[in-house]
Design a protein that fits this description.
Layout lengths: L1 H27 L4 H36 L22 H10 L10 H51 L8 H5 L8 H23 L7
Length: 212
């Protein structure tokens, strides 16, 4: 529900801030860029899994309270968030939607797949933010705009891999709205996207001049 949306926004922003705050701090304290890179990856994996498990725990508590207290409420997690169709055709609204609304698998359908996909979504949101932040940090705002465009391509590809329909006007520009792929192919494509993003980030941060 709303916790998924807020988690995506939170971890995306942390990714951007991390490029500006964490790298200079660690390098100034003697941590190599390589160790910083590895540590950041491990940290985001741990944080993403923790957020997902905590969200599941809260959902379970919520369900038990409603059930045993016999409250006149009905919990519906079938949809994470809905965007007004009037937003179609607005490029800014489309990009915001891709950031805050991630591919979703219902817990009732396949709980393990749901947890894995949710964790992957958060990891990717962080990496997208990290990519944008790293691009701006090293190259400045003008070239940094190009990293925003690159990030949009990655987010759009990620959504399509998991069957999320890309809204207008992007779907018109690329000539396809969504894909219907086997889960295995979606996972392989996801690993490929994550690998590409990490490679770009590593290339950017490997010899970046730390600004004090």
């Amino acid at each position: 529900g709303s916790s998924t949306v807020s988690s995506n926004i939170y971890i995306f922003i942390i990714g951007i801030i991390g490029a500006y705050a964490f790298l200079p701090m660690y390098v100034q304290n003697g941590v190599t860029r390589k160790d910083y890179f590895k540590g950041a990856i491990l940290a985001v994996i741990g944080l993403s899994v923790a957020i997902v498990l905590f969200s599941v725990l809260l959902t379970g508590i919520e369900y038990l309270l409603v059930k045993f207290a016999n409250l006149p409420l009905e919990i519906d997690n079938s949809k994470i968030i809905s965007f007004d169709e009037d937003g179609d055709g607005n490029i800014i609204a489309t990009v915001v939607k891709m950031i805050v609304v991630s591919p979703y698998v219902s817990l009732s359908g396949n709980w393990l797949l749901s947890l894995i996909v949710s964790s992957f979504n958060l990891i990717t949101s962080y990496l997208i933010g990290w990519l944008i932040g790293a691009g701006y940090y090293r190259y400045g705002w003008f070239i940094g705009l190009g990293f925003i465009g690159l990030s949009i391509v990655f987010m759009m590809s990620w959504d399509m891999l998991w069957g999320i329909e890309v809204s207008e006007p992007l779907s018109t520009w690329i000539g396809v709205g969504s894909l219907d792929l086997p889960v295995l192919v979606s996972f392989l494509g996801s690993f490929a996207i994550i690998g590409i993003i990490l490679t770009i980030i590593r290339t950017i941060t490997r010899k970046v001049i730390v600004k004090i």
